[in-house]
Amino acid sequence: MTTTETETTARAGAVELAVAQGGMEVRQFLRSREQVVFTLAFPAIMILVFGSIFKGTIGEGVKFTQYFVTGMIATGLMTAGFQALAIQIPMERDRGVLKRFLGTPMPKWVYFAGKVLMVGVIAVLETVILLAVSSLLFGLKLPDSPAKWLTFLWVSLLGITACTLCGVAFSSVARTGRSAPAVVTPVALILQFISGVFFVFTSLPVWMQNVASLFPLKWLCQGLRSVFLPASFGAHEPGGSFNLPMVGLVLGLWCVLALALCLTTFRWTTKRDG
Questions:
Q1: How large is the greatest C-alpha to C-alpha distance in the chain, in angstroms?
Q2: 100-144: per-residue pLDDT in tens?
């Protein structure tokens, strides 16, 4: 066997390992009833609750439910990427799962590839569920052109990538697995409140808008609103437009920044392990 053939075989084997790791991660997620309910069902429940309470319009013929749904789709992506990993990884670190992984001959990137595949599967499932609930029960209009579907795709991909990398980076903040939910959940909730998920973004105090603009969720929400809301509603956004180039720029910068933080701060073992 030539050197090229050997390298090709090795790469193929590594890809198979990554896919197998991703399959295992998905199965473990589905076996955890609490995770499935919180990650997949909670956003849909929130849409049902808020959609049943708030029935008015917020301008340009846009119902509050339409506005809220776009924020919940963004929240679902953040939950699947940031919140799930920032809680799950410290728990695995605490149980020694990461330390045992280091003792295997598998490349380190396989572990992260498995997490990425799991997040991707969860994100797709969650988005489908939210779109189905919103369109069937609250009349959400799905994108009516290839251009809007393309925007939905690239905004979602950039957003979930940024959230996933942020989740891996933030997983080093919690000292123990037990404290991870208490550390991560308030951060996720605060970001939702200031990023235009539960309230019209421009109705929030200016200082709150400025803080939210530093983080990915605000831009993810704004990008998704350009897909599901009329183009005329862009006048209600900060700056008077949906500003998709800025959405792409900020989310892209967060991908780079979060990746740098992952590479410099990620810990495989707890402090007591040395």
A1: 69
A2: 888 887 788 888 888 999 899 889 988 898 888 888 877 778 888
Two tokens, residue 34: 């609490």
The helix-helix angle for 216-228 and 64-78 (nearest 10°) equals 130
Strand partners, 63: 57
Return the closest-CA partner of residue 80 out of 156, 152, 134: 156
Identify the CA nearest to 136 among candidates 47, 224, 40, 41: 47
Pick from 100, 84, 108: nearest CA to 28 = 84
Token readout for 70 is 């776009």
Q: Tell me how far apart the alpha carbons of residues 106 and 10 are, in angstroms, rounded to a whole number.
A: 12
Distance of CA 102 to the CA centre of its chain: 27
Cα distances (angstroms) measured from residue 3 to each of 54, 71, 152, 230: 65, 51, 42, 56
Instruction: Please choose, from the candidates 198, 194, 220, 219, the residue with its C-alpha nearest in 3D space to the C-alpha of residue 206.
Output: 194
Q: Coil, helix or strand for 57?
A: strand
Count CB neighbours of 132 within 10 A: 12
Q: Are 159 and 215 in contact (CB under 8 A)?
A: no
Structure tokens at 61: 């013929």
CA atoms within 13 Å, Cβ hemisphere of 108: 8
CA distance 263 to 261: 5
pLDDT in tens, 203-243: 899 999 999 999 999 999 999 999 988 888 888 888 888 89
Q: SS3 string of 3-54?
A: HHHHHHHHHHHHHHHHHHHHHHHHHHHHHCHHHHHHHHHHHHHHHHHHHHHC
End-to-end, the C-alpha distance of the chain in Å comes to 42
Cβ pair 76, 43 in contact under 8 A? yes
